[in-house]
Amino acid sequence: MVRQGWCSLLFVPADDAVRREKAARAGADAVILDLEDGVGSANKADARAAVAPAAAAVVAAGPDCVVRINGNWQTAMDDLRAAVSAPVRAIMVPKAESASRLIVLAEMLAELEAERGLPVGHTSLIALIESPAGLMALPEIAACPRVIGLALGPEDLAVSLGVAPSPILLDLPARQLALAAASRGQMALAVPLSIAVFRDVEGYEAAARQAAAFGVTGALCIHPNQVRVANAVFRPSDAEQVQAARIVAAWETAQAEGRAVTTLDGVMIDRPVVLRAHAVLARAQP
Length: 286
Prior knowledge:
The chain is of the alpha/beta class. The chain contains twelve helices and ten strands. The strands form two sheets. Strands 7-6-5-4-3-2-1-8 form an eight-stranded parallel beta sheet. Strands 9-10 form a two-stranded antiparallel sheet.
């Protein structure tokens, strides 16, 4: 299955107007309006009230909009009521550890969409995996309705294991997440490096390229430095797009002539190669 989606998703506190404006113009494919860790407990209500105008402003500036809700059920319900609207394309669910939670949230979204005149399925879900329990439940979580992506939360995962968010720790979870996401044609958002490391651009790029080799398709970001790297690493280059288009064209010519295999530049072109080329072209668009 061809996977499409966002290469870069930039977090910003929903209640910070100045940072919201900067985030909307940072070049990210999507901006995540954060109602969870990025907002103090005393400011949750204000942040919730800011979501509607903030989401509209983000979309007007170009990126898509995602809202990260809180984990507590009562707060999450208030967050959903504030978030579900035409500009918001997805809800990020923190500390996802079971399919049952995602299923209930999907039902809530359906009710809110119907209430607000939105198309059924307008609001998708991104499951944020932040614990060993979440990693163990990846196949079931990926199978839930409305889930379009799996994301790795390196800092919380490290806390749950009592260690630092090092590449040694995060390598395997990133691979696991990429496999689970690929099995459902979903986005895999996982760089095996602490998300807090945003000044070491070279180190972040190296980790992102390693993730891309695992099958990861994008990254969560907290700084424009990371956005620029994620876009460069996870979005196919112009040369890769041109080559993919040539492969597809050669294959279509072969098919029209009744051949199941052809060659291009001395390399065999068969169905798996063509499917990879189609995937490259799909990923070229945010």
